[in-house]
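user: At home tonight, take the chain set out below, taking as long as you need, and be ready to discuss the fold:
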Amino acid sequence: MTPGSGAFPSKNTNFGWVVVSDTIRLLGFNALQIRVKQDIGSPFKGVRHFFWLANYNLSRNNSTAPDQDVVYLQNAHDNLRPSHYFGANSLDRTHMFSFAATFEFAGGLQLTMLTRINSALSNTLNLPLGCGCQGKSFQSDITGDGTAGDVLPGTNVGAFGRSVKVASLNGKIDSFNTKYAGQLTPAGQALVAAGVISVSQLQQLGGVVQPNRPRPQRTGGYRQLRSE
């Protein structure tokens, strides 16, 4: 970040931004694993040994951060209330099935096969930043913690693919647009309360929560975008 280029530069214009990242988060992993295996000697002609193994995992990997491994992504979605959002992270898979088999032929030659089938990962529904400028906090910082692109209100971390399905996505978006679009974020409210700017002026400048577009609808094989 160029020194002094923020929305509210410090008194020392040569002082840039300080990014603080840590690995503090709340994490919970629960799983049920079922394993079946069999070891067979000389199952049929030409094969001296046959071994197979099948695993099934039913699990839930929840956390306050989207990824439990990447340091930069450890920050909570709400810095004012770190445990506010707690849900499926980017490593969560509800179902995992793996199968392996090894054939040992005469002469010592071995053939191993391995396959794995996993259910889909979840995704977090984040608000669009609104712009690439330094005024993002006035458009998508609903929690007021100073970070833009918040989790869509009414949903949780990793909600899409879990509690929110494709069929219910537009309902969540419509609810957000009705309640939040055109309203002030905490950053905007602070400016208005301080008498720096009026509500109408912020609205004219686009410094308010922006509406989200609904997902495309399919009608007769063609995609149609509903108007905002």
